[in-house]
Design goal:
Blueprint lengths: L1 H60 L3 E6 L4 E6 L5 H9 L7 H28 L6 H17 L2 H18 L9
Antiparallel strand pairs: 1-2
Helix pairs in contact: 1-2, 1-5, 3-4, 3-5
Amino acid sequence: MDQTFTLLGSIIEALLGVIVGFALSWLKEWWYRKKERAEFLRKRLFGPLINEITYNISILRKSVLQTLSVALNRFEMLEFNEPKFSAWRRIVEEGTYLDLPPKIYSTLNSIYRDLELISKLIDKLREEYNQAVPDEMLIDEIEQAIEKQKQELDLLNRLDRVLQELYEYAERMHIMRGEST
């Protein structure tokens, strides 16, 4: 009888050890995957998107066209301040946007559609500048249309707001901490 209780006690201890070991192993794996996912989202979603939005905010604050002096002021070069879309396009193509809340995704999608409109106007401006004899009146009209679109679409304020929402969401999800502007 004593041997039976000893044997039964050993079996129960072994089973408890296996169950505790399994639970700890599972918790470790869960924690590791959670950290891995956060790192993935930081590198493939939030980092590139926040950088691109920050760049687009800085571009929208500038005038559409800048003249740069090159080679010790010997000639001038035109620079078109155009928004970027590469990170957003990659995020949409990869489906990484699915990790964003629907409201933030919808806002970003709308903003990027409006940025593409600005980009198309800048392309028209570039085409006109590349003509043998650029039409100065048309150039002025396109530049005014771009500035008007920036104002009417309220792009700067919308980009600032969505950038803040991205930071807040990333912090809530423990993906980025204390990095907001």
